[in-house]
Here is the input.
Amino acid sequence: MIEKALTGSKGYWAWMIFLLAIMGMGGMFYTQQWNYGLGITGMSRDVTWGIYISQFTFLVGVAAGGLMLVLPYYLHNYKEFGRITILGEFMAIAAVIMCLMFILADLGQPIRALNVMLYPTPNSMLFWDMIVLNGYLFLNVVCGWAVLHAEYKGVKYSSWVKKLILLSIPWAVSIHTVTAFLYCGLPGRHFWLTAILAPRFLASAFAAGPALLLVVALIMERTTFFKVGQVAKDKLVTIIGYAAIINFFFLACEFFVGFYSNIPGHMHTLEYLFWGLSHDGHVYNNLVPFMRASVVMGIVGIALIFVSRSKKSDGLLAASCVLIFLSLWIDKGLGLVLGGFVPNMLEQVTEYYPTVPEIGVTAAIWATGFFVLTLLYKVAISVKLEKES
Amino acid sequence: MKKDRRDFLKIAGLAAVAGIGAPSAFGSLLRGSDEALAAAPAAGGEEAAKSGKRLGMVINVRAFAAQPELAEKCTEVCHSIHNVPDFGNPKDEIKWIWKDKYNNVFADSSHYKRPGGLAEVPVLALCNHCDKPPCVRACPTKATFKKSDGVVAMDYHRCIGCRFCMAACPYGARSFNWRDPRGKDENGNPFIKTLNPKFPARMRGVVEKCNFCTERLAVGQIPACVEAVAGTGAMFFGDLNDPNSEISQILSLYYTVQRKPSLGTYPSLFYII
Here is the structure.
């Protein structure tokens, strides 16, 4: 089955070589980081996690988002998703691989990473995150591959696969819940210390994951004979649209609690993210343009995605999915993690700016994810088209 | 019918096992702080484990107000014996004990029209050696742990450098080795001015913090900062649970405060303001 990835059009090979080039460039930057230490990044004593961990957090959502295709198809027997469920599972694989790479890139002593397993520590949420992420990767690799291979052979998949698929449904919820627990259980970090952090993560995951999937699927419709199907598209619009609306509703709840209660600790980070935080005569606001853009893009994206459905416009659908995805990426892939460190524990402000090597490594990990994704989608689409022709 | 009964028994059995297992599983999530669970929640951090040894410290801010140079002295002696590097910039900074402004160390306490000069007094900040340390709860490898005497210690050789403990510490007491502390700057000056061979220098990529001079305690000495200000009444050190210890006497004589007591970390550091 893997041989399907070894033949392709010129465009396919150009894309793969382009991704490999970015991966190579990032590899060189990572060598620099390996030799110098994490001081090569923009992180500091005050902002101790940067874009590596924020990308990780966001991508856990993308991985969990696959649930929105697996659940209707396998649990509710929603046949229209039959053609794209595999895309959700394979996207989860690529996203979890990126998550694990971002964690490794962020470790000060990556060669000691296995200490997490050698000295299992159930009171640490990172220990559980290791378990749920690796478990989710395993489940999706096994289920995705087994189902596709059965289709390739023209038979129905074995019954044990169904059991693992059913297990993968609550497991998807667990990966993002545990990832939220990394943050929302820390005393003193008021911005993260909110009981709706896990629900917020899930809402944004269920919008961002399917949005990315739909964009990729629309690109594949243009470049191959693969078709998502109008009914499936319309259903995805409902899922993405409502999940994004719930995400913004949760954000509004955070604003209400922070500003109506008037508790300074609950307002500071929101002020820093959306208006700028005044401190010692200086206004710190380097994330404000991004966060405002996130809100605007999110709201415009939600409006457009429903318009695109009534007009049956693929172009508009793709544009609205890109807007929603970018909005949620800024919200979680930048603001949530970086904002939590401002102000610091002594109410001082240090702003964070990623460095060139840091951005290079980040780009390379994204490229690796897209490389894996392309490879898997190439196999999946080839098998599906072969069976249908 | 028979099959139904067997199924029922199976489910009942599983439920019973889950019922027994659940509380202990939940308890294991909160480990690293189990002793203090019995403490009264309303006490706002003043209460703590009542049995066993619990080392603590009193910092007399009034004494530091009278002799501001003492604070610098504490930092110097601590950082030199513990091989704490000086990178000369705040981004890479590593510090175990340092002076900061009252408004920052006690960021959540309000003093409308403060008594003269409190804002300018150097207030020492260091690890609070919490009785319920959030850093210990967060660490995925037990590289940071609480000793039986109450000291929150670190194993620099096990730390993977994930910095979860730095996010978890509400006091900003932890530092990370963003670059090689044993290295040199562009001019060839080592970051560690003079290496103390009696204490290990750290390597790149691990977290570190004040260890209450656990290596000195082991040979019967008191923490270096307390020794450095001996005779001034600026710092006191001892077992909080021993009613006859000097520190217990001080705590019962003076009105003391802790940093962020509302977070339930039960700091073992007390300040006389």
In short: Residues 53-272 of chain B form a domain with the Alpha-Beta Plaits fold (CATH 3.30.70.20). The two ends of chain B are 75 Å apart (CA to CA).
